[in-house]
Amino acid sequence: MGAAVGSVMRVIPLEAAESAHHMVEAEKAHTGAYAPKFFNAGDYKTLQSLCEAIIPADSDSGGAVEAGAPEFIDLLTSENDEYQKSLGGGVKWLDGTCHTRYGKGYLECAAGQQKEILDLIAFRKNADADESLTAPVEFFMLLRNMTADGFFTSRIGIKYLGYKGNTFLTHFEGCPPVEGV
Amino acid sequence: MRLVWRHRNSSDEIKDPRRTAASPTLLRGGIVVSIVERVSPEIKKDMLQVGPVKKVYDVCIVGSGAGGGTAAKVLTEGGLNVVLLEAGPRLDPDRDFKEHMWPYQLPHRGVGVGGRQRGIGDEFMAPNGFWQIPGEPYTVANGSAFQWFRSRIEGGRTNHWGRIALRFGPADFRAHSTDGMGDDWPISYEELAPYYDKVESYIGVFGSKENVPNSPDGIFMPPPKARCTETLVKKACDQLHITCIPSRLAILTKPLNGRDACHYCAQCGRGCRSASNFSSSQVMIPPAAATGRLTMIANAMAREIVLGKDGKAEAVSYVDKTTKTEQRVYAKAVVVAASACESARLLLNSKSPQFPNGIANESGVVGRYLTDSVGSDLVGHFPQLEKMPAHNHDGVGGMHLYMPWWRFGQKNEFLRGYHIEFGGGRNMPGVGEFDYVCETQEGYGAELKQKCRSVYGAFIGFSGRGEMIPNENTFCELDPEVKDKWGIPVLRFHWKWGENELKMANDMQQTFRQVIEAAGGTVLVGARRHSKPSGDVQEQSNSISTGGAIIHELGTVRMGNDPKSSALNANCQAHEVKNLFVADAAPFVSNADKNPTLTIMALAWRTSEYLLEQAKKMEI
Question: pTM to 2 decimals?
């Protein structure tokens, strides 16, 4: 490696660009329908819907589905028994409960009905009041964490956060003016 | 009959498992002629073989980390032929390092198959740093808790460390004289200072001259500017009269010896292709190799040091992991630098009639006086940081400011001291980044999404690193039953924190709370711990770390003037085996409130120069 900083600036971005290119090519190869490894086709659609409910698209950015969170969750779940029990069981519970309450599966329910069910399992206090909700609440906690993981480590999620690093500087600028700092 | 011609060269290894005792050889012009007499196969007699001439190196070094790498450089540059045994593979930065990858470039986003690395490390980290090595276990005595981190790769733990390069202070070498606990070193700060100078000048350390009592200044490159997180914390520390100064890290802010300056991507934990941060693999081994006098044998698990008939170390026996065969290298001197506990293990496993308790262990101290740093953590949330405009907050892969022990010389509720490291802010988002928000905010939808963004980067975690005083309940020994996959007896760890350490950890918690509140923050309660690059996993409810979790184990082959209570003399030379040296942190007599690596290198440099002198005088 030469002593000049300039040599670093030339070499590494080239490699980074190449590997990003490979990744984009790999992505393109995958934008056919994703074939889930763990969830069956119906449950996977439910998973996608749930992910989008947790981190939705808005005017600032796409949501968890665009970020690839369902693929990420499905991949990890296919390799982890505990995730299979919790997430696989949770999706089944969700459909079963919707059938009981509304006569149809989660995806077929109206928006208001879906909200009712999610509001139930999205808060630990509901399991405190009703023990039978313990596993569903834990299912949703796991799903929420993994959806956040999948969204905020994606290209659009990182952009949404405004992270400006992972680059090459000749010197570090320090802290810009911030009120209270 | 078959004539086997074997040409001697510098990388010749004796691989023949049918090796017999030395036999007459025919040596003509550098070519060894081995005569193999083959008897009829039906009789299946052992083949008689005229033994090959064994190559005898000047020095065999075990381990290529901070100490081993330093020894390799100094000894080869001093003219000696060195063979270096490394338990792991060679390192190839271009292949092995993953700087500048985004999490979305890997399908597991960094948490590995089944998400199993979540909370304990990630796929981007520099390779081969392990808390658990399949096939290479260790055991922990009932009632003890201990975690043992091992690196199995060229450069050892210097590929995985935090680059924190702090000199021990003068008082750290005579702590016993000061407060009656522990022991004094057989050397003083003044004797080691020239070697701190050499190491810092060679590897490059940034910092600033501050004249803090017992935290000596070094030879420094300019430090980087403070981040927003550090600016905030410094203000609070100034109010509380807690010393807060630029940190001292082995990261270049100017080019040095052909290495480029840092480009501030904060990914030191992943490795550094530009060698801007220090690792033995990229900074000590290359100059050693350039002398032409270094032979590195990778994937070599040292089993034992072989004692010769003259009572000196004669060879190191090791397992070649790739062929799974037993091998041996011969040398006139042996430098053990396998990391403190592995070095103790190697000595304990090197038994002979003369040393039934392990080579150079007549004192019985090998494995004893084990310590690790006292660790404690607390995280705070700082609303002001939510107002940071989008900007590049990366910096180097470590803190730009830190708090050295600011109450030195005062009367405190405990002996010795600790320094504080801290970090946070807008790091590259990773898996687990928003666990805390999800847990506290709950719910789902637009509110959750926006809350994550608004608190992103508004957390700072504080970690204390304090001095542990050795105690008789904390040590390692050979497990009487368990062996690793290579057939080598493993270590069994005994661990107990003393009262002093528990008081110190409580003090750390109080200090962190004060700093967080003075900075306008709130202490996080029930926050799940993030993993740190070192893979440290701690329960947030314990205020003191698990033994070994800080990865500063040392003291297990300690130096001293009295052969009854130490294994090594003031030159890190074994009292009882004059050609045996230890050059990692095993010789340390105390575990000061400063990370050990800079001192490992200074001590190894000094030990190596002593060895060179002795070699010139033919004393070894």
Answer: 0.88
What's the whole-number mean pLDDT along residues B444-470? 97
Which residues of chain A have a CB within 8 Å of the CB of B455?
Answer: none
Residue B148 contacts residue B341 (beta carbons within 8 Å) = yes
A66 has a chain B CB within 8 A of its CB: no
Nearest to B71 by CA among B57, B61, B58: B61
Cβ neighbors of B484 (< 8 A, separation 6 or more) are: B135, B136, B137, B490
For residues B563 and B555, give the distance between their C-alpha atoms in angstroms, rounded to a whole number: 15
Question: What ipTM was reported for this prediction?
Answer: 0.88
Structure tokens at B592: 């000061």
The closest CB to that of A179, out of B104, B387, B453, belongs to B387
- Altogether, the residues listed in chain B come to a count of 620
| Number of residues that make up chain A | 181
Tokens of B347: 């000595």
Q: What are the angstrom distances between the C-alpha of B211 and each of B197, B217, B404, B479, B596?
A: 16, 6, 11, 46, 20
pLDDT band at A1 (very low <50, low <70, confident <90, very high): very low
pLDDT of B221 > 60? The answer is: yes
In the three-class reduction of DSSP (H, G, I as helix; E, B as strand; rest coil), residue A36 is classed as coil
Contact between chains at B227 and A175 (C-beta distance less than 8 A): yes
The pair of three-digit structure tokens given for residue B496, joined into one six-digit string: 């107990």
Per DSSP (E only), the strands in B337-439 are: 374-381, 401-402, 418-424
Give CA–CA dist B313/B325, Å, rounded: 22
**Cβ within 8 Å, pair B392-A165:** yes
Locate B129 and state its tokens.
């740093």
Nearest Cα residue to B420 out of B501, B511, B342:
B511
Partner residues linked to B10 by β-bridges: none
> Can you tell me whether residue B486 is helix, strand or coil?
coil
The answer to whether residue A29 neighbours chain B at the CB level (below 8 Å) is: no
Whole-angstrom distance between the N-terminal and C-terminal Cα of chain A? Answer: 39
- Helix, strand, or coil (residue B475): strand
B603: number of Cβ within 10 Å: 30
Alpha helices in chain A, H assignment, sequence order = 5-30, 41-54, 69-78, 81-83, 89-102, 111-121, 124-129, 134-152, 155-161
Distance from CA of A28 to the nearest CA of B (A): 13
Q: Are B220 and B207 in contact (CB under 8 A)?
A: yes
Condensed to tens digits (0 to 9), the pLDDT of residues A119-155 reads 999 999 999 999 999 999 999 999 999 999 999 999 9
pLDDT at B121: 73
User: In the predicted model, is pLDDT for residue B620 greater than 70?
Assistant: no
CB B542 within 8 A of CB B568: no
Token pair recorded at residue B354: 């003369």
Of B108, B426, B435, which has the smallest distance from its Cβ to A75's Cβ? B108
CA distance B364 to B358: 9
pLDDT tens-digit readout, B10-63: 333 333 334 333 333 333 333 333 333 344 544 444 455 566 678 999 999 999
Domain ranges of chain B: 1-54, 226-277+374-466+498-543
- The candidate with the shortest Cα–Cα distance to B88, out of B110, B67, B62, is B62
List, in order, residues 6 or more apart from B528 with CB less than 8 Å away. B119, B432, B435, B436, B439, B540
Tokens of B275: 């060698």
| Cβ <8 Å between B432 and A58 | no
Contact B427 A124 (CB under 8 A): no
Q: Do B443 and A165 touch (CB under 8 A)?
A: no
Cβ(B537)–Cβ(B529) below 8 Å = yes
DSSP for B103-156, written as a single string: GGGSTTTTS-GGGTTTTT--TTSPS-EESS-TT---EE-TT--B---EE-STTG
Residue A69 makes CB contacts below 8 A (sequence gap 6+) with A51, A55, A146, A147, A149, A150, A151, A154
Shortest CA distance to B87 belongs to which of B299, B393, B236?
B299
Question: Count of alpha carbons within 13 Å of A13, Cβ hemisphere only?
Answer: 10
